[in-house]
Write a structure and sequence with these properties.
two-stranded antiparallel sheet, 19 helices, 450 residues, mainly alpha, single chain, globular
Length: 450
């Protein structure tokens, strides 16, 4: 279902969306996923919390195996290398479906792809304990399951961006994106807390059931209450027809890639995503090396808890400034300065942290400020190309994930050869400064896909 919100001046042009018998004061209903049909305020109040829950469940499912892998490795006698292969298989699947997921979402509707992918990965998570116990070679099937999980979750964020670009007004995009994406921090915290208890009391299987069943229920609720059931199911025939008919609305790739604004958003996103992945991957080792007596739950929980209000504040501030009449491009750039510039300062300060608590404060500030990206670069792709935002975001996210892996390996090389953590933090600052500078010089917010 999709409600069309319009201003007084748009009323005449939208009368065809009203059902017979509707009064002019009622909210019109559109049963098509058409460009320009925005969510009304009442509908947004239903969609945004529901999509927030979806993002929360996405990360609950994603971190299930990292929480359980130690217990599973002990049970099945895996070494560190084997555990690493299992964990890393998710990433390779995740990279493969970003672009195609965004492309299909732009053609058939992001909400449908979100529903299908969530139901699919819910089944995968639920049946993982079953296939592991029944297999004579559990590590092989678990690796395949994790790879499939990556394939299915790779379409989530491109589909989300595609949906927002069509259904959310420019002046509401930042807070909507920030609110929904905050589910990633909540999901990580939720499963980190509940999953640890379930793992200790009931075994690793219970953690999979806890994260898989709600994902499946979320997909069913999307289908029944938001997509209205059978008429929204994507058949193979409709999928093929949708992709064939998309020839009339091809993505203007040449025009997009000839634009410096598009390259600015791609470069900035790749730099920030890569450095974020690098920082996140090495922080536990940093605390273990420099502060061996530190409590792991503190630096694994506090930064994520701090990131939630930072993200929401960034979205509120951005939309407020745009509604006041500030130039959209300038506002996006200001948010990116917080996300890549100011956050890098706190990353650099990690080199000078004199004690454990200072390090936690600096890390929390750095990760919290990076969430302003939800109101900057991540939303900017919807400004530039709303008709193909999913496809373009898929390219950005694929590049960010690949660079993230490369940066993690490079950081390990720097630590191994120099024995210096400041070299890693300096590298992160340099990369972020380059991406920020490129975006400040060439970034825009004018639509270029028409």
């Amino acid at each position: 279902m999709a409600f069309a919100a319009y201003n007084e001046g748009d009323k005449n042009s939208n009368m065809n969306l009203m059902r017979t018998g509707d009064s002019p004061n009622e909210v019109p209903i559109s049963r098509t996923h058409a460009h320009g049909t925005y969510w009304s305020k009442s509908e947004a109040k239903s969609w945004v919390p529901f999509l927030f829950m979806g993002t929360c469940l996405l990360y609950c499912a994603r971190v299930t195996l990292p929480i359980c892998v130690s217990a599973m490795a002990e049970q099945y006698e895996w070494d560190k290398k084997q555990s690493g292969v299992v964990l890393g298989s998710f990433f390779w699947g995740y990279c493969l479906t970003q672009i195609i997921g965004g492309y299909i979402s732009d053609r058939l509707g992001g909400a449908k792809i979100l529903m299908l992918s969530t139901c699919a990965w819910g089944f995968v998570v639920i049946f993982t304990p079953v296939i592991v116990h029944q297999s004579s070679s559990p590590i092989v099937l678990l690796t395949a399951s994790r790879f499939l999980m990556g394939l299915l979750q790779g379409v989530f964020y491109p589909s989300l961006m595609s949906l927002f670009s069509i259904k959310v007004r420019e002046s509401d995009r930042a807070f909507t994106s920030s609110s929904v994406c905050t589910g990633s921090q909540v999901g990580t915290l939720l499963l980190g807390a509940v999953g640890s208890v379930l793992l200790h009391r009931y075994g690793w299987e219970s953690v999979f059931y806890f994260s898989g069943l709600p994902s499946l229920l979320w997909g069913v609720c999307m289908w029944k209450y938001f997509l209205k059931g059978q008429d929204q199911i994507i058949s193979l025939e409709s999928l093929g027809n949708g992709l064939v008919n998309s020839k009339n609305s091809k993505v203007p790739w040449r025009k997009l890639f000839q634009s410096t604004a598009v390259w600015a958003v791609i470069v900035a996103h790749i730099c920030l995503a890569g450095t974020f992945f690098c920082l996140l991957s090495w922080m536990p080792t940093f605390f273990h090396d420099l502060f061996p007596e530190s409590k792991g739950w503190v630096f694994n929980v506090v930064p994520w808890a701090v990131a939630i209000p930072f993200s929401l504040f960034g979205g509120l501030l951005t939309d407020h400034l745009i509604k006041l009449g500030f130039d959209t491009a300038k506002v996006r750039k200001i948010m990116t300065v917080f996300a890549m510039g100011l956050s890098s300062i706190f990353t650099k300060l990690l080199s000078y942290s004199g004690n454990y608590y200072q390090a936690v404060i600096f890390l929390s500030a750095s990760l919290g400020l990076q969430t302003f990206n939800h109101s900057g670069v991540s939303v900017n792709v919807q400004d530039l190309a709303p008709s193909c935002a999913g496809s373009l975001f898929g390219i950005m996210n694929t590049g960010g994930a690949l660079c993230g892996v490369a940066f993690v390996y490079l950081a390990g090389y720097l630590i191994e050869t120099s024995g210096s953590w400041p070299s890693v933090f300096n590298f992160i600052c340099v990369v972020n400064t380059f991406g920020l500078s490129f975006f400040l010089f060439f970034g825009q917010a004018t639509r270029i896909d028409i």
